[in-house]
Amino acid sequence: MDSASHLDHLRRELGAFEACLAGDLSARVEHCGQWTLYDLADHLGGGNLWAAAGVTEQRGDYEAPPAPRDRATLARWFGDTADVLLAALDTDPSTPAWTIAPPPTVGFWQRRRCMEALIHRWDAEHALGAAGPLDPALAADGIAEVIDTMTPRQIRLGRTPALPHAIRLSATDSTSTWVLGPGDPVATIRATAGELLLLLWGRLPAHEQAFTWDGDRDKAMVALAGSLVP
Questions:
Q1: Model pTM?
Q2: Hey, what domains does the chain have and what are their CATH numbers?
């Protein structure tokens, strides 16, 4: 997926998240510990400013102020953080930037913030009882990001052990396949790209009927049990 596509998707996902802020801000976000929708907005909006600083100020120590509590002010604040991020990222993807993993370029943040917004938009909508679908092409890029960036970083930081087995992921809404982990896959799991991405991010359990399995499911479950993403 190219830079323009990432920015288009990012703009849409951030806009969809902002629309959720008209809902119950005290709603619990199921897959984010004890967070409420307000906490999620604080996290995503603050992260927008943090990533923008990584581009414009070449630093990773930026700390955003807490998000405002007032509903109307919160929505405006979040929209402003989205504008700051989009302005910072609207440049040549090869431009140098501070990042949390290679490559140290704006292109890294174009992709990373797109995936962050996608997952947390789903989280927000899910908290309000109406989670919308994930774009198949964007979800496919998200699966690749988990495999090539997020899980290696988790292992490198000691947050999860090295995967003991490989799993093949096969999208039923395209011809795309991926291999997560080392060696020959011990099992294959099939579902839409969106469902596979939600599985990797711990949003859908592997026993959901959406998933079709072949091979040694028990070994595959050991590999999926770790913290593949932050």
A1: 0.96
A2: 3-132 (1.20.120.450), 137-224 (3.30.1050.10)
